[in-house]
Structure to design on (93 residues):
């Protein structure tokens, strides 16, 4: 995840406060509950790329010997594999 969890927490609170001030949402009950739900949704969405990167690394382990011999470029292969999986799964990164 490219953003720290602390920043995501701050950003989610700021978003909820701004939306409330503009009258776009109402916060019933605990004021932190809505911000917490927004924070969780943001972290879940941001971690999709992390999980995809881990999956690509696992896939590329099968080609480790060819990569070490210089027959394949790891960064190019990583990028192309990641793009292909994202496209197949309709992910927006």
């Amino acid at each position: 995840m490219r953003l720290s969890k602390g920043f995501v927490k701050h950003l989610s609170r700021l978003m909820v406060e701004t939306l409330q001030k503009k009258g776009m949402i109402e916060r019933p009950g605990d004021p932190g509950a809505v911000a917490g739900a927004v924070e969780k949704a943001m972290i879940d969405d941001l971690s999709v790329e992390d999980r995809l990167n881990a999956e690509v690394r696992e896939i590329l382990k099968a080609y480790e010997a060819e990569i070490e011999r210089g027959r394949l470029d790891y960064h190019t292969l990583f990028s192309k594999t990641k793009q292909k999986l994202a496209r197949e799964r309709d992910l927006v990164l």
Notes: The chain has a mean pLDDT of 90. The two ends are 11 Å apart (CA to CA). Residues 63 and 69 are 10 Å apart (CA to CA).
